[in-house]
Amino acid sequence: MTLTVLGIESSCDDTGAALVRAGEGAPQVLAPEILANVVAGQTELHAAFGGVVPEIAARAHAEKLDLVVEEALARAGLTLGDLDAIAVTAGPGLIGGVLSGVMMAKGLSAATGLPLIGVNHLAGHALTPRLTDGLDFPYLMLLVSGGHCQFLRVEGPEAFARLGGTIDDAPGEAFDKCAKLLGLPQPGGPAVEAEAKQGDPKRFAFPRPLLDRPGCDLSFSGLKTALMRARDALVADQGGLKRQDRADLCAGFQAAIADTLAEKSRRALAASPGVTAFAVAGGVAANATLRGRLTEVAGDLPFVAPPLALCTDNAAMIAWAGIERLRLGHKDDLTLSARPRWPLDPSAVPLIGSGKRGAKA
Ligand code: KG4
Ligand code: ZN
Fold this sequence. Notes:
Layout: E1 2-9, E2 14-23, E3 33-41, H1 43-47, H2 54-76, E4 85-91, H3 95-112, E5 116-120, H4 121-133, E6 139-144, E7 149-156, E8 159-165, H5 171-181, H6 188-196, H7 221-238, H8 243-270, E9 278-281, H9 288-298, E10 303-304, H10 308-311, H11 316-327
Parallel strand pairs: 1-4, 4-5, 6-9, 9-10
Antiparallel strand pairs: 1-2, 2-3, 6-7, 7-8
The chain binds 5'-O-[(R)-(carboxyoxy)(hydroxy)phosphoryl]adenosine and zinc ion.
Zinc ion is lined by residues 121, 125, 145, 313.
């Protein structure tokens, strides 16, 4: 018996629809298959504003959702009649976008009679290593993106223990701000990484925030201020930035983020005996320096980094998380609400701050 689920994602600036098919058993028994995974990004729409504009995002989602769903069905060669359920991101995220997706999913569910499954976007990221690598529970997940940064012990499809997270900016946001301060293009992460290759990570002594405190919480906003000071000092001194200065600033900045995440990962692993693997997700997981450091920290434990298209926002992870919920017999109905905030671990103390890329949960 297999389950074929349509996933819909619209919580930030990517409109996604995907079809995933899987057996009823554990992921290893019958490997899940991604039949289609369509993502329509909105980067150009927000480029002039230096960040995601929620109203523009919501309107673009509303315009694109039916098109991406049609495209996913066409690519998979399926019709709505071939589906077992419709899974949709019901939060956390920019509420206008989440509402657009939830309304679309409700419409499809009402029209077809298919079960509706509300998925937590963070659960989608956190369960991706089971879709791609068939990981067994429990495993440790580091979610590092433009909007999120947290350590999760993933114990089951709906059981997550948060071990720590950022108290201000997410690392992707920090990379983006670093690029902005140095006149590099957006998204900042890849631009900073490319510059850093030519740079000396030791020339500037950037802080390693919160390493002096116990636990796994992180902070990245002070790093941005330190970078700005170093830049301003160079400009005051020399009247501008030389090419090597920019490369050295990027290398130092990237090293500070990688060092901090590596040390906190070491602590999170120490606090998670019995995990089967250490996994990462989120756009920042694309960073090769960071990946190298995290692989070292994992030691003998398998280190799992899903392919980039499944690490960043996508609807295949939402369809998969929907399948995981459906297998538990859990589903929602037309009373499903869109939630701007939705912590995965309700028992964890709320983290302070809310990034411009979306509410941190
Ligand atoms: O998961 P993601 O695609 O989406 C959201 O968070 O919405 O992550 C995007 C973030 C951006 O901030 C981008 O600068 C960062 O991931 N990023 C990187 C790299 N590639 C993307 N950061 C560091 N190094 C990279 N190679
Ligand atoms: Zn995300």
